[in-house]
Design brief:
333 residues; five-stranded mixed sheet
Length: 333
């Protein structure tokens, strides 16, 4: 058995000039995942962390108590390590500069959706944590600036997610493939269980909130109908699977093959998912595993961010399915 810690050290040895900061960040994420795992798994017994917190985030969405808890857990773990210069979260209005001597001299920033799908907690459905790491572009020794967070997704040095389901798994990439680690609570360790993960080129699942069908663009409607048509040569119809937690839907499609779609709609004319906290890290993972991610026209990783909480339409998954969806969208434009 190879643990996450051993794997990180082994990979660090491949880079002679590595300073250990990135490894330290991954260690902080590992600790956060253990703490969040612990509290999620006793949520039904601890009413203090179920339900709404009573506040809204900057997007006007009701914050769940576990949203706030997961956000603070991530923040504290990263501050304690001192290996990041700045932090931005879906749950915070603005970014946070870790304005200490160590923070100002750190090389990296981190962005996160600390608890994706948190509304599912009350009904015991899988949720997750998403993270994305970049090298800062502002001068070392000074506080980070907004521009540090407005880098294209291709500039990511690492990204990943934790899924809290029937088992807890941490999946991440540093730009050299995707690896998955399953948490063994009896040992308190993440064990390498899914080395060199690859997304199937063709898939058999499509994941979309079909309850919003009438609000979707024409190209998306036509693609959904294509997925539902019977055609033995292409193994259609595909199966519809939608959990309502991006991490969970993406994880299934990573293992089994499929496409996840959250398009524009009359309700969300710019899309609903956040480019920095959800789109970029999942797109990076998809490409590293052999899949694709677009906004329907352009690769997600090539989009220039202009806002911390920028929304984007999102098509991610098996290459053949993403390409087919793009064909329908472009034909209907």
């Amino acid at each position: 058995m190879k643990t996450l810690g051993e794997f990180i050290i082994e990979k660090q040895a491949d880079y002679p000039n590595a300073t250990g900061e990135l490894s330290g960040i991954l260690s902080a994420i590992r600790l956060s995942a253990k703490i969040i795992h612990r509290d999620i798994n006793r949520a039904g017994l601890t009413q203090d962390i179920l339900g709404e917190a009573g506040d809204e985030n900057i997007q006007g969405e009701a914050q769940m108590k576990l949203d706030v808890f997961a956000n603070e857990t991530m923040k504290k773990a990263l501050m304690a390590r001192g290996d990041v210069a700045g932090f931005a979260s879906e749950e915070d209005d603005s970014f946070i500069a870790f304005d200490t001597e160590r923070g100002r001299n750190a090389k990296y920033i981190l962005m996160t959706d600390p608890l994706d799908g948190s509304s599912n907690i009350d009904v015991n459905v899988s949720v997750g944590t998403i993270f994305s790491i970049y090298k800062r572009i502002s001068p070392i020794g000074s506080p980070v600036t907004l521009e540090d967070f407005f880098q294209k997704g291709r500039q990511q040095v690492a990204a990943g997610y934790v899924t809290y389901g029937s088992s807890t798994m941490l999946v991440y990439t540093t730009g050299n493939g995707v690896n998955g680690f399953t948490y063994d609570p009896s040992l308190g360790l993440f064990i390498l269980s899914h080395p060199e993960m690859k997304m199937p080129f063709h898939g058999k699942y499509y994941s979309i909130n079909e309850g919003q069908y009438v609000t979707f663009p024409e190209g998306v409607k036509k693609f959904i109908k294509y997925c539902q048509e019977e055609d033995p040569t292409t193994k259609r119809p595909y199966s519809s699977r939608y959990i309502g937690s991006l991490v969970s839907d993406f994880h299934r499609n990573l293992l089994k093959g499929g496409i996840y779609i959250y398009p524009t709609s009359t309700s969300y004319p710019k899309g609903k998912l956040r480019l920095l906290y959800e789109g970029n890290p999942m797109a990076f993972l998809a490409e590293q595993a052999g899949g694709k991610a677009t906004d329907g026209t352009h690769p997600i990783l090539d989009i220039q961010p202009t806002e911390l909480h920028q929304r984007v339409p999102f098509f991610v998954g098996s290459t053949a399915m993403v390409d087919k969806a793009k064909e329908f969208i472009e034909a209907s434009a």
